[in-house]
Amino acid sequence: MPHAANIYRLGIKELWSLARDPIMLVLITFMFTVMIYVAATAMPETLHKAPIAIVDEDGSPLSGRIAAAFYPPRFNPPAMIPLSAIDDGMDAGDYTFALDIPPDFQRDVLAGKSPAIQLNVDATRMTQAFTGSGYIQQMVMGEVNELVQRYRSSAAPPVDLARRVRFNPNLEQSWFGALNEIINDVVMLSIILAGAALIREREHGTIEHLLVMPVTPGEIMLAKTWSMGFVVLLAAAVALVFVVQGVLRVPIEGSVLLFLAGAALCLFATTSMGILMATVARSMPQFGMLAILILLPLQLLSGGSTPRESMPGFVQNVMLAMPSTHFVALGQAILFRGAGLSVVWPQFLALAAIGAVFFAVSLNRFRKTIGTMT
User: Fold this and answer.
1) Residue 39: enclosing H or E segment and its boundaries?
2) What pTM was computed for the model?
3) Which of 337, 322, 192, 336 minimizes the C-alpha distance to 266?
4) Residues 38 and 56 placed together within one structural domain of the fold
5) For the chain, what is the domain count?
6) Residue range 97-108, pLDDT digits in tens
7) Is residue 224 domain-shared with residue 90, that is, in the same domain?
8) 33 and 85, same structural domain?
9) What radius of gyration do the chain's Cα atoms show?
10) pLDDT per residue over 33-66, tens digit each?
11) Strand 118-121 relative to strand 97-101: parallel, antiparallel, unpaired?
12) What is the C-alpha to C-alpha distance for residues 341 and 62, in angstroms, rounded to an integer?
């Protein structure tokens, strides 16, 4: 009981220290409100009013149908330009795409030949270029196939593919962006807050007070872990209810309480990581630079931004040792697909094991370095 009382009181002290740090309070509020809204409403992977130019050297009904297929909101109305204006227009950034339909295009298509259409892409607009190229190819091939079937009366294929989109039938970007941002914020802020709490002790000189108090390094570390984890967990719960479900109207398929339980296990591991990083860094600027080296791979390689299946096998195996990988899988399964504990228990078990390892390593490092933090 005395140990539990010490941990509780030290944790309350950490909460009061955080309450007196306006920069950290602004960061927490900003990340769990504005950043979630921006991630939901911005459309980095969606084609929206992309500028396109068309050079119609054929002047046939087919080329006219292809030009008419491009309309808002994915594309701006196409600009019909001569062939000589392609280079100048793309150099000036007026067009992201320039489609050149060659002479006698319709005649060659109906004759059974394979004429080629040239698509010029401004790859400096990387997201639009990647997404738009696929859209344009599908649209052009759709118009060509429709014309060929009408003239040749081609029989319908005996097999057809029926697609059914589950969990997000309208493919709303906001549904994915908002929930994925909460998952990323939980990992990022827990590491930053836990590490900053320890470094703040050293910079303010209060670490000397702790060293003369009848408390153990384990109690100090547990106090920082539960207090900073509680702040992040509370912020995530408020964001889920008021920002995601309230403002953005994003449906949550699974249990919020089950997700928060998984987040608590993840916070146990990530706050330990933050304290470990704080024992390595000697100042807040050093901690900030170290955090960049750790947080970027965690966010990019954990499966939230890019599917893990598309990564090299070595990277997939290495990232299994990181808590963020299992938390992303757990969060997406619960929030997107409505999974229950019977589905996500392996992730819960992995988070508990990883958290225990990180806590033990951090505590060992903390014991060795706490005497030098004077």
Assistant:
1) helix 34-41
2) 0.75
3) 322
4) no
5) 2
6) 999 999 999 999
7) no
8) no
9) 28
10) 999 988 888 755 567 788 999 999 999 999 999 9
11) antiparallel
12) 55
